[in-house]
Amino acid sequence: xxxxxxxxxxxxxxxxxxxxxxxxxxxxxxxxxxxxxxxxxxxxxxxxxxxxxxxxxxxxxxxxxxxxxxxxxxxxxxxxxxxxxxxxxxxxxxxxxxxxxxxxxxxxxxxxxxxxxxxxxxxxxxxxxxxxxxxxxxxxxxxxxxxxxxxxxxxxxxx
Length: 159
Description:
Number of helices: 2
Shape: elongated
Helix content: 10-25%
Oligomer: single chain
Radius of gyration: 23 Å
Number of domains: 1
Largest sheet: 6 strands, antiparallel
Order of helices and strands: HHEEEEEEEEEEE
């Protein structure tokens, strides 16, 4: 007479239950949240990014003065600088009065230095001309380290 399998499993070693080898599958929303957490995005920031209207972007200060500050990019030209009338006021002596501009072209964004004294950087490289911004681009204006996030409506959908 054959033995009854334990825990609904056959005696075959390849299907033997091994709790330390359990695989769990999560949906794409959870995977996106996990990736965001690994990138240092808080749940609140994730909600703000998810709520961005089409053809807009967001800059979040990651390091430097005003860490955590958020700046909406919803104009064709947004100027960042130390001048009180700048669209993005960055109050630090390392920032020129008109330091850099963020340009919107439809649903795409780019940035350029405006002849600043200390330069504008993307991914640690000083930029000399207009450069495109992609979701997650890291830029530096003076002591301010900012991350760019595109509207989720404008990102290519994953197939």
